[in-house]
Amino acid sequence: MKKDILKHELVPDHVILSKSEATKTLKKMDIHPEQLPRIKSDDPVSKAIGAKEGDVLEITRKSSTAGKFVTYRLVQD
User: Fold this and answer.
1) Number of folded domains in the chain?
2) CA-CA distance, 31 to 46, in Å (whole number)?
């Protein structure tokens, strides 16, 4: 039986932003997509959520100090 890695307690929530959400987020942060940290398209989580090269992922981690921490990654091959 194959395990769903997205349900593992150590894997934070990953969401693919729509093109308009990504544009709005990057504009708010005043950066270009190329300035984001990268995540490979063959990363197990990228594959599990169907992320493709050029997508921007929003990653939300639980934090004991901040409550939650949101970060973004650019998918690349």
Assistant:
1) 1
2) 22
CATH number of the CATH domain containing 23 = 3.90.940.20
The pLDDT tens digits along the chain (77 residues) read: 668 889 888 899 999 999 999 999 999 999 999 999 999 999 999 999 999 999 999 999 998 888 999 999 999 99
- DSSP conformation letters of 10-76: TSPEEEEPPHHHHHHHHHHHT--GGGSPEEETTSHHHHHHT--TT-EEEEEEEETTTEEEEEEEEEE
Instruction: Note whether 54 and 34 are within 8 A (CB).
Output: no
